[in-house]
Every structure is written in structure tokens, then in C-alpha cells.
Amino acid sequence: MKLRQEQKGSIFLLLIFLIIASVSCVLFFSLREDRVGDAFKQEHVVKTLLVLEKENEVLSTDILFFYPVSNQGAVIYIPGNTGSIFSSIGRVDRIDEIFSEKGIEVYCSEIEKLLGTSIDFYVVLSLKNLQTITDRLGGLRVFVPLPVDYAGEDEIRRLLPSGAVVLDGDKLPVYLEYKLEDENNADVMERRQNVVLAFLAAMNRNSAVIFEKKNFNIYEKLFVSNVDEDGLLTLLKSISKVDSEQLVPQTVTGTRRLVDGQELLFPFYDGQLIKDVVMQTVNSLVSESRTLSNRVYVLEIKNGTTTQGLAHNTGALLKSAGYDVLRTLNASSNNVEKTEIIDHIGNSEVVKALANFIRCKNITVEEVQNGDDYTNAVENVDFTIILGSDFDGRYVH
User: Fold this and answer.
1) Cβ pair 243, 73 in contact under 8 A
2) Of the candidates 217, 240, 380, 384, which lies 20 to 30 Å from 140 by C-alpha distance?
């Protein structure tokens, strides 16, 4: 029986539709943008926001700066009580409230404003899911300096031995949340940051298993991210290669003030300091010799002015930039006009970075024997800074 004209037309249109749909599918899968893969192929620092949360409340927020060329990285911790006037919620509050109220996308945007840089990717992991993954990875390796025998408000006793410890999933909440009498918030912050780094290291140790395509779909569902499953696999596999032994954790520093009954941390210099720290961090990772990130450099800061507390405050400033300040003291004169940096180890690249950070042009290099960075430092100090009247607390003018 011959097909009617209308039927022929319908079949023809159906064939055209099927051809268009097939071509569209082929183009979609062949031209689909691989944002993560492209990011790691380029020679620039990849920035990833890592958030650990419990019941929609932030436990830890870290920004991992990773340079794929060298597998070197840096971590900046964002204290939950970092305060400001946040446009997303229309009030002065702590930054982690944004995550609870507005979600990860808005939270990531506010952190970008705080740091003055874009963030490529974000990964959110709940404590419950971290416990699950930890058991599958065979535990997280951390160091506990003192034995823990702690009972919180619930009066449940929590125990941890001292030394190198492998934490299973059940022990993670204990390690993350205990606080001894002589500890401060910085100690708790450091532990939470240690867990993030231990987690990356554990993934790297188990990379042959966890990052197998057939296995990863089990893990992928436990993360929240702004990339698809393939992108998340590439992202985690790449950043887990970071040399954690060389990481120098840094944090936002500032002034603590009570606002509506809660203590908030307002970043120094209206947030410009942390932006400068981020810029220096990125520059140090991409420097050819990478001497800026090879180790922590030790400073001695002397106050050559009549301004009380100038050396101490400058020490806090430079600690936030990743330096170790051995001591702060008064110079032999309180009438120094020009700020000076004395280089005891003869490292021109590192002293230049330090000088640029405070905009100091007056550098003196001591004679160094044998060019050994470690043995020639004067009294275990790599650089001495003598503050003069041209230093305003942040920059030399």
C-alpha cells in the first residue's frame, strides 16, 4: 500500500529531526569544554576553595593555591569569624554565616572579594562524608603533640594518644572539635587545616584506586563542586599531588572587635594586607627558582622609632605573609630615618620579595661564607629589618 503524502512528509521530518539530534549530541560531547583539564594544562596557579562543613555550618575554609608545573602549593585559611560589611547579606557579620544563609556560590564570591582574586573551583565536603572517605582511604595521618583526654559540654570523654596518629572516621570529630584549656582558636584552626592537608595526602597515596574511573563514582557523590564528575576527578587527582611537606599555611590576620555580642576578626588595612599576601603567594609559586616557597624565612625586627609597639605589630604583619619572626626589639637608636633590611644569607630573590612587600628600597647584604642559606644566618636569623620613621606600619614612604 502506498504511503499517503502526509505520511511521507511526517517520516521526512522525523528523519531530519533524528539527524539534527544526532549531530547535536556528537558536537556536544566533542566540543564540551574541559575547564578543569584546560586549567591544569596552562602554566598558572590554580585556586581551589575547600570547605569542610557540618550540618550546614562551616568547620574549615581553605584556599589551596596549586602550581601544576612544580606541584608546589600554598594554603590560606579563612577564619569563620572574619568580619566585614557583606553585601550579600546586607549587614556586618562573620563570613561563615554567608555559607549557612546563602550557600556555596555566594560564599565563594565573598571570599573572592576578600582575597582580591578569582577562585577557579570549589569543593565542599561534609564531616559525615569525610568520615566515610577517611575509612575507605585507611585513615588520615596527623601529629598530636600532647595526649588528649577531653570531655565537652555533652560530658562524653574523648581520648587521643600523642605522636604520629592515624585517625579513622570515628576519631575525626574528636580531633577537629576538642579544645584544651591552654589552647586558643588558632590551635583549633591549625588542626582543622592539618586535616585538609592530611586528606589530600591520603588521596594521593591511594590515587591508583580512588581515581580509577570505575571506582571514583562511589566517591563523587560525596562531594559538592562546581564541576562535573570527570572534572572533579581531574581536580582532586591534580591537587592531591601537592607537596604537603613544603606547604606554608597562612591565614587572614586582623583586629578583633565585639559586634552584637560576638567577636569578629576585621582584616588589617581594610583587607588590603591579605590581598597583598595572596599576590606574593602567587608570585612565589611561579618564580623560576621557587626559593620563596622552599622554606620559612626567619626575621628579626627592630624598632628604630619612638612609636610604641611598631616592631611587634610589624611582626604580626609579616607572620601573616608566611615569615617566621624570631624576635622583636628596640634598635640601638630610636631616631632612625630610613628603614633598612639586612640580608644575612645573600639571597637576592627572597630579600627582594620581602622588600617589595613593605616597599623598602634600602637593602644591605652582609658577606656570606660558602653561600649556605642555613648555616650562615646570623643567630638563626635570615633577615633583620630596622624600622625607621619612613615606615607607617605597613609601607615605607
Assistant:
1) yes
2) 217
